[in-house]
Amino acid sequence: MEKNINFTLRVWRQRGPKAKGAFESYEMKDIPTDTSFLEMLDILNEQLINDGQEPVVYDHDCREGICGMCSLYINGRPHGPKGGVTTCQVYMRSFNSGDTITVEPWRSAGFPIIRDLMVDRGAFDKIIQAGGYIDVNTGGVPDANNIIIPKEIAEKSMDAASCVGCGACVAACKNGSAMLFVSAKLSQLNLLPQGKAEASRRAKAMVSKMDELGFGNCTNTRACEAECPKEITISNIARLNRDFIKAKLKD
Amino acid sequence: MTKINSKIPQGPLAEKWTNYKAKQRLVNPANKRRLDIIVVGTGLAGASAAASLGELGFNVLNFCIQDSPRRAHSIAAQGGINAAKNYQNDGDSVYRLFYDTIKGGDYRAREANVYRLAEVSNAIIDQCVAQGVPFAREYGGTLANRSFGGAQVSRTFYARGQTGQQLLLGAYSALSRQIAKGTVKLYTRHEMLDVVLVDGRARGIIARDLITGKLKRFAAHAVVVGTGGYANAFFLSTNAMESNGSVAIQCYKKGALFANPCFAQIHPTCIPVHGDKQSKLTLMSESLRNDGRIWVPKKKEDAEALQKGTKKANDIPDEDRDFYLERRYPAFGNLVPRDVASRAAKERCDAGFGVNNTGLAVYLDFKYAIDRLGKDVVTDRYGNLFDMYEEITAEDPYTTPMMIFPALHYTMGGLWVDYELMTNIPGLFAIGEANFSDHGANRLGASALMQGLADGYFILPYTIQNYLADQIQVPRISTDLKEFEEAEKALMDKMKKIKAVQGKHSVDYIHKQLGHVMWDFVGMARTKESLEKAIVELEKVAKDFWSNVRVPGEVNDLNIELEKALRLADFIDVGILMAYDALNRKESCGGHFREEYQTPEGEALRDDEEFNYVACWKYTGEGSAPEMIKEPLNYEFVEVETRDYKS
Question: Which residues of B are known to be catalytic?
Answer without folding.
Answer: 338
